[in-house]
Amino acid sequence: MLVGFKRYSLLVGLTILVALSLGFGQASAQEIPKIEILSLTLDKQSYQAGEEVSIHAVVRNASPRETLEIKISVNADWIEGQSVESNQIIMRAGDTRVINIIIPSKEDSTGPKVLSVGAFGTFVDEPNRDRIHEVHLALVVFQDQPQSLVFPIMLIAIIGVIAAVVIIGARGWSTA
User: What is the DSSP code (8-state) at residue 38?
Assistant: First the structure.
C-alpha cells in the first residue's frame, strides 16, 4: 500500500511539474515582441514602365508592452537602387498605422514583378536588442509595351524580295 502511495505521489508531482512548465512556456511565448503587416495595397491595378508605385502598408505593433521604432523597406530587382525605405515611426504596443511609401520603377519594366515589403522594428528602450521583422511579398503588374508594326512589315517585305529573286532566277535558269 505504501508503494502505491509513493507511485501516486510521484505521478501527481510530475503532472504538476509538467503543467507548470507548459504554463510558463506559453506565457513567455505570448510575450515575444512582434510586428504584423495586416495588409498591403497598391494605388493602381497596373502601371506603365517608369511610373512610381505607391504602397500603403497597414502595420501593427503586436508586442505586449514594447514601444518600437518601425520602418518599411521595399526590395525588388526592378527598383532603381534595389531598395527604398520609409521614415521611422514610433509605435506603442498595440498601435496600428498606415505607412505609405513611393517607389520608382525602371523605364524597361514590363509584365508582373514581385517585390518584398518588410516591416522592421527596433526597441526604443533597448536599441541594442535584436530587431524584429515581418516580410510580405506583393505582385506589381507593368503593362507590356505596345509592339511596333515596322519590324513585321519589313520582315515580310524582305521575305517577298528574296522569294521574287528566287522565282525570277529559277525561271531564268530554266529557259537557258
Answer: E
State pLDDT tens for residues 92-139.
Answer: 999 999 999 988 888 888 888 888 899 998 888 887 787 888 888 888
CA angle 116, 117, 121 (to 5 degrees): 135
Secondary structure of 50-85 in HEC code, one letter for each residue: CCCEEEEEEEEECCCCCCEEEEEEEECCCCCCCEEE
Quickly list DSSP for 116-143. Answer: EEEEEEEESS-TTSPPEEEEEEEEEEEP
Q: How far apart are CA 109 and CA 113, in angstroms?
A: 8
Q: Cβ atoms within 10 A of the Cβ of 116, count? A: 13
Q: Per the confidence metrics, is the pTM higher than 0.70?
A: no
Positions of the chain with pLDDT lower than 50, given as ranges: 1-3, 5, 25-30
